[in-house]
User: Fold this.
Amino acid sequence: MAKIPFHRKVLPWMFTIIFIIIAPALVFYTSGYRWNPKKHAIERNGTLIIDTLPTGANIKLNGQNMPETTSVTLQNMAPGNYNIELNLNGYHSWSKTLWVEPERVTFASEIILWPDASPQLMGETNVEHIFSDSDAGLSLVVSNEADGSTSFGEVDKNGQIIKRVTTKEKISVSDINWNPYDNRRVLVQGNASSTLGNWLVQTSPPLVSKIPDGIFHWESNGLVGYTPEDQFSIRSDQSVERQKKALDLKDAYGDWKIKELPQSAGLILVQGDNAKQGLVLPPGQWRLWYQKNGSVILREQNHWLWMDTAQAQSVSRQATGDWLLPIIYKKQIRFAYKNNNEAWVWLAGQEPQLIYRQSDPLVNVSWHSEGRDVMIATKQEILMFSLDDRNGRNKTVLATFDEIKDAAIIDNFVYIAGRKDNKSGFWRLPLSLKTSTFSPLGKLGF
Assistant:
């Protein structure tokens, strides 16, 4: 019998040993495990999802061009920091550094790429203030006319101002409040001849009427207000009902009331007519401003108090700002506001978050309709900030002006009252070049 060569004896064992060594490595590799030389350890890889509106943006990871474009799911990513750069022709670039964790999905998702466009002059007007409601798509434009009158108008779909009503008074408007039951009626607060007052502005049929000084709220049957002695009800047919109120009642809104404690010891917040106890308020002339689902917000000039009584123990938060601009995001209300040179966002039950600060006073803040980005107008720039604060918020300079008097987002445009290239008037800046939506996660391979 012939003797088996040595290499034929050894090779099967060698292949068996190699297989035993390599097979687990292959299993680990296909399962997403990699050697991390920085940590000198084996870690399982993570996943990175990048989703933009519009889609089709080019991707750079740590300076390296990727073959894929957005929207995309990148699997088997070694854990670590990745500098993500997104570029799309006709749009401002986007960049952020994110940490990809092992065995987890990191989202760079719902990123809106803002058009790199030039503002368009819509008309040479004397616009002083632009107000908008991002949730309801409402707008109110206030113009001071050459003859000393004040006109109130709306912005139509073509970006033109439709003048609705004019008053002979010169009103410096500081705040407005739309009627949630009839958006043709607006409560306007401001100054005329250095005197603080309230006006009821009705766009159809056109009407501007001065109403008594006091605290007013929109109720389902009209405008209800409180003065030190009386309660007023102003209905949609302009009829006015006046009656005496309880001396200790300072304000009422929905089921909530602010009452004065005996011997002028302060104010107390109660709920319901038969409340046996209430919440003692901080010193100040507080009034009710917002109430819904157990949350109530009170105002005392530029001070705000948010109280959540739906929890077992009442939670309160305070803020300081000119006014609050609300929006509903994922069934939760959030507010944006400015305080001199700072822009803030305030979420239910949380402390306010600082978005931006500079040395000079800001002009205005406004919500993008998606509720994830805030427009901030300085005296010379239109800025957009993302609320994603991982490794800092993304900031985009949309446009620069010689001077900006006011700015607000209406529909999918930023409207600006200001001067650019020595031309003064009403300007429009697009926030989208085409209509699109974010892709479901299933289409991203997740």
User: Anything to note?
Assistant: Residues 26-32, 435-446 have pLDDT under 50 and may be disordered. Residues 6-30 form the longest helix (25 residues). The first strand starts at residue 33 and ends at 36. The chain has one helix and 41 strands.
